[in-house]
Amino acid sequence: MIDLIRNDPSICYHPRLAAAFVPVSIEAPDELAAGWRVGADGRCTPPPPEPEPPPSASALLPKLAFLRRFTQEERIAIRAQGKTDPVIKDFWLLLDLADTVDVTDPGMVQTIRYLEHPGRRAGFDPAGGGAMSETFLHGVRVIEIDDGPRPIRSVETGVIGLIGTAPDADVTVFPLDTPVLVAGSRLKAAQLGAEGTLP
Fold it and tell me: Most Cβ neighbours (<10 Å): which of 42, 51, 171, 183?
C-alpha cells in the first residue's frame, strides 16, 4: 500500500521526499482524499476507520474509591438504614459483590438518586451532574447548576465556587439579601462548609 496524491510530488514535497513516490496509473474514485491508498492490484481504498475510543475509565471506580465519595457520616447512616430499607439493603448487597462501580449505570444512578431523598442523607451526585433540590448549608442557600455546559464532571473538582448576593438578579433565582453558594454537588458544598470556607 502507498499513499496517494493527485499532484506531482515534486511540486508538493522536498525533492528527497518526492523521489520516494511511485507514479501509478489508475482510475481514482471521485471521492479520493488524503489518506486513501492504492493496493498492488490498483484498487483505491479509504483509510481504515478510526478505532472507537475505549469506555471512559473515569466511569468505573474501584469500590473503595466509590465509597470514599460518601462522608463517614453518610456511609454510617446509609448502612444503618439498610437494616430496614429493602432498596438500601439491596444496594449494599450488590456493592459487596462488586469489584468496581459504574457510576453511569442507570441502575446505580437510580439507586444514588434514591439515597439522595430528603431524610435519608445529604445529596450525592457520583457523576457530577443531574438535578438537585435547593438546600441550606451553614445558613447559605445551595443551588446546583444542572443545565448548560458542564465540562467538569468530577465531584472532587466540580465546584463552581460562588458565594455572594446578586443585587440585580431575579429575586426568585437569587435572593437579594441571602448569600448563595453555587457548587457542583451538595457533597462538595458540605466539604467546603466542614473546611471552614463557608460562613
Answer: 183
Q: Which residue do the cell numbers 433565582 mark?
A: 173
What CA–CA distance (Å, rounded) separates 15 from 50?
Answer: 31
Quick count: other Cβ atoms within 10 Å of Cβ 185? Answer: 26
Q: What is the mean pLDDT of each run of 10 residues along the chain (199 residues)?
A: 68 82 64 73 78 69 88 85 87 90 85 69 41 44 51 44 48 50 56 53
As a residue count, the chain comes to 199
Based on C-alpha coordinates, what's the Rg of the chain? 28
pLDDT for 97 equals 92
* 111 dihedral zone (left: phi>0; alpha: psi -120 to 50; beta): alpha
Letter string b/e over residues 143-170, b meaning 16 or more CB atoms within 10 A of that residue's CB:
bbeeeeeeeeeebeebbeeeeeeeeeee
Question: Roughly how many angstroms between the first and final C-alpha of the chain, as a whole number?
Answer: 68
Domain spans of the chain? Answer: 1-52, 55-124, 128-199
The answer for residues whose C-beta is within 8 angstroms of residue 90's C-beta and 6 or more apart is: none
Q: What is the pLDDT of residue 139?
A: 46
Model pTM score: 0.34
